[in-house]
């Protein structure tokens, strides 16, 4: 029940150069491929649940410790992170709230939400901490909506795009495409989730070759992405190999395949986070994850730019490190929340456990 020892018990040493890790992983993944076509019992051995035995488990506790910045009285508001979530409509107000509030609970200083006009007062009422912009306004032209978001864009360390854009007659997807293009030109990282994945699956050029993009598909979203990009069915037997190939096919964007074990690849390395979280599968946990990945990848980017010579991470890609950290923290928080609430565990309980979970790994003092 204590995920902190889960971290240490599953942790493996990745303290060697990223290229060596990458070479070893290529070897392991080739071995996975070698299992294909053999007897069913051996094929099962390559399934997601057994990836640990191949040494792909990330040293998540160590990564979390090294990328989380110390609390420093010399810092100004905003220096620990400014995140924007773009999404939220009349039918769905929970998902963007979960992502945005999770970013704050982990330690970002500012969290904005850009949503539809009717979603805005609802999201504001959940929390006065969030800065809510009702810019997805049906009477606005696409260029006006994009201009409203662009006014703020340069201030953000990361955008989370795509939580619930459906359910309106206005074509938000065109707006989001424009916003993503602008973010990319400005080198702002983008975490793509939910309906953003629907958009990207049908417009791969939006993220192709952008190393600061992260896609966080759930089981259904992954299935559609694999079918579209690789023309194959999603595969559990050769999961690591398939994810590596998928990420390469989209030019090295990082992909976090959510599930029983979370798999992460940027086309160079594959990492697994499988520490046990919670058996409750209440909706909204993926939204916590996308807000968490936004914060941790921003922190990893900063740490790498300032201290790359002494960090010695298993991957030099901050988006990969952010995914590993986000996934591990979510699982730990889910575990704490479940220990307390059992069957009644909800996403809001998991959000309330984020602070205590991070505190166990990186104490504030
Ligand atoms: N409290 C809330 O407001 C919550 C809202 N949520 C949102 O609810 C929506 C549904 O998510 P679920 O995870 O339940 O559903 P699924 O796991 O079925 O996946 C739905 C996703 O697939 C995409 N999609 C739907 N039809 C498609 C098609 N024909 N071809 C390709 N892609 C298609 C959608 O854009 C959506 O992103 C998402 O937008 C999600 O973000 C969830 O995050 C849970 C909490
Ligand atoms: N079968 C599972 N066992 C354990 N953990 C899981 C399982 N499936 C998902 N998770 C965890 O829950 C997190 C959210 O994944 P999930 O598949 O629920 O996303 P989602 O469907 O996008 O969620 P959301 O309801 O927010 O849209 C993952 O990061 C993973 O850690
Ligand atoms: Mg989701």
From TrEMBL:
Q: Show the InterPro entries listed in the entry.
A: CARKD, Ribokinase-like
Q: Which family does it belong to?
A: Belongs to the NnrD/CARKD family.
Could you say which enzyme class this protein belongs to? lyase
Annotated positions binding (6S)-NADPHX: 164, 218-224, 287
The record's function comment reads: Catalyzes the dehydration of the S-form of NAD(P)HX at the expense of ATP, which is converted to ADP. Together with NAD(P)HX epimerase, which catalyzes the epimerization of the S- and R-forms, the enzyme allows the repair of both epimers of NAD(P)HX, a damaged form of NAD(P)H that is a result of enzymatic or heat-dependent hydration.
Keywords from UniProt, A to Z, are: ATP-binding, Lyase, NAD, NADP, Nucleotide-binding, Phosphoprotein
YjeF C-terminal domain span: 60-361
- Whose protein is this, by species? Spirodela intermedia (Intermediate duckweed)
Pfam hit, one = Carb_kinase
Specify the domain of life of the species encoding this protein: Eukaryota
EC number(s) stated in the UniProt entry for this protein:
4.2.1.93
Chain sites annotated for binding ATP: 258-262, 277-286
Q: What is this protein called?
A: ATP-dependent (S)-NAD(P)H-hydrate dehydratase
Catalytic activity as recorded in UniProt: (6S)-NADPHX + ATP = ADP + phosphate + NADPH + H(+); (6S)-NADHX + ATP = ADP + phosphate + NADH + H(+)
Instruction: Tell me which Gene3D superfamilies the record gives.
Output: 3.40.1190.20
Q: What cofactor requirement does the entry state?
A: Mg(2+)
For biological process, the GO terms are:
metabolite repair; nicotinamide nucleotide metabolic process
Gene Ontology terms for molecular function: ATP binding; ATP-dependent NAD(P)H-hydrate dehydratase activity
């Amino acid at each position: 029940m204590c995920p902190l020892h889960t971290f240490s018990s599953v942790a493996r040493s990745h303290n060697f150069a990223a290229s060596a890790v990458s070479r070893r992983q290529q070897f392991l993944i080739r071995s996975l491929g070698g299992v294909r076509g053999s007897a069913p019992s051996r094929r099962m051995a390559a399934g997601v649940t057994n990836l640990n035995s191949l040494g792909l488990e990330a040293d998540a506790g160590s990564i979390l410790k090294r990328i989380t910045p110390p609390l420093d009285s010399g810092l100004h508001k905003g220096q620990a992170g400014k995140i924007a979530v773009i999404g939220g409509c009349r039918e769905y107000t929970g998902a963007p709230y979960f992502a945005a509030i999770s970013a704050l609970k982990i330690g970002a200083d500012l969290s904005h939400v850009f949503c539809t006009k009717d979603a805005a007062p609802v999201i504001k009422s959940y929390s006065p901490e969030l800065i809510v912009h009702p810019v997805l306004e049906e009477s606005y032209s696409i260029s006006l909506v994009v201009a409203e978001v662009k006014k703020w864009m340069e201030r953000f360390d990361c955008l989370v795009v795509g939580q619930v854009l459906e359910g309106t007659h206005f074509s938000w997807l065109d707006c989001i495409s424009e916003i993503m293009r602008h973010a990319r030109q400005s080198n702002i990282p983008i975490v793509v989730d939910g309906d953003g994945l629907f958009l990207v699956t049908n417009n791969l050029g939006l993220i192709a070759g952008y190393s600061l993009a992260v896609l966080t598909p759930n089981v259904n979203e992954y299935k559609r992405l694999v079918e579209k990009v690789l023309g194959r069915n999603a595969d559990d037997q050769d999961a690591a190999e398939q994810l590596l190939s998928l990420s390469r096919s989209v030019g090295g964007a990082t992909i976090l395949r959510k599930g029983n074990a979370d798999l992460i690849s940027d086309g160079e390395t594959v990492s697994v986070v499988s520490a046990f979280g919670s058996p409750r599968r209440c909706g909204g946990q993926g939204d916590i994850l996308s807000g968490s990945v936004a914060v941790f990848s921003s922190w990893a980017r900063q740490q790498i730019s300032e201290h790359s010579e002494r960090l010695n991470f298993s991957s030099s890609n901050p988006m990969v490190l952010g995914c590993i950290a986000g996934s591990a923290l979510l699982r730990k928080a889910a575990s704490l929340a479940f220990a307390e609430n059992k069957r009644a565990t909800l996403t809001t309980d998991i959000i309330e456990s984020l602070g205590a979970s991070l505190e166990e790994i990186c104490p504030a003092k």
